[in-house]
Design goal:
There is one protein chain. The chain is built from 4 helices and 4 strands; from the N terminus they run H-E-E-E-H-H-H-E. Strands 3-2-1-4 form a 4-stranded mixed beta sheet, covered by helices on one side. The chain is globular. Helix 2 packs parallel to helix 4 and helix 3 packs antiparallel against helix 4. The chain binds zinc ion. The site of zinc ion has 8 residues, from helix 2.
Length: about 150
């Protein structure tokens, strides 16, 4: 994909997911919950998971308030990990994190990011990295049973 096309797709996806966030709701029967906070930007979100006995994420949702990037990233995170095993979800978290830190070369390194690869541009915007990765750090905390994370 060309850089221009990636940028265009990024803008479309962020706009769309910010306007119509997927899985944006509380989950009364969640068995893993974590709160994420990015004080640098003011992004706050809660990730709800339902993980079954076979270690599969059968349901995932989020609530919160933040900038367009944090919200779009959270929305796309929930869409990406629903139905995945915990191991697959953790792998996506590591790939997304490495990509946003510029440590993953999308053209050479194997990855499973799919549409999430549109966030690769944040590696050039250090202040935005925390916005884009907040939902993923919060997901990781929820899986591990930690309740609160902050990016500071
Ligand atoms: Zn933000």
């Amino acid at each position: 994909m060309s850089t221009d096309r990636t940028k265009q797709l990024y803008q479309e996806l962020v706009l769309d997911h910010n306007k119509n966030p997927r899985n944006f709701r509380e989950m009364p029967d969640a068995n893993h919950i974590a709160h994420g906070n990015n004080p640098l930007c003011g992004d706050k979100l809660t990730v709800f998971l339902h993980i079954d006995a076979s270690q599969t994420v059968t349901d995932v949702s989020f609530k919160g308030d933040g900038c367009a990037i944090s919200k779009a990233s959270a929305s796309m995170m929930t869409a990406a990990i629903k139905g995945k095993s915990i191991a697959e979800a953790e792998q996506l978290f590591h790939e997304f994190h490495d990509m946003s830190m510029g440590r993953l070369d999308l053209t050479k390194d194997p990855h499973h990011l799919g549409k999430l690869a549109v966030f690769s541009g944040v590696r050039d915007l250090p202040a935005r990295v925390k916005c884009a990765t907040l939902a993923w750090h919060t997901l990781d905390a929820a899986i591990k049973g930690e309740e609160i994370i902050t990016t500071e």
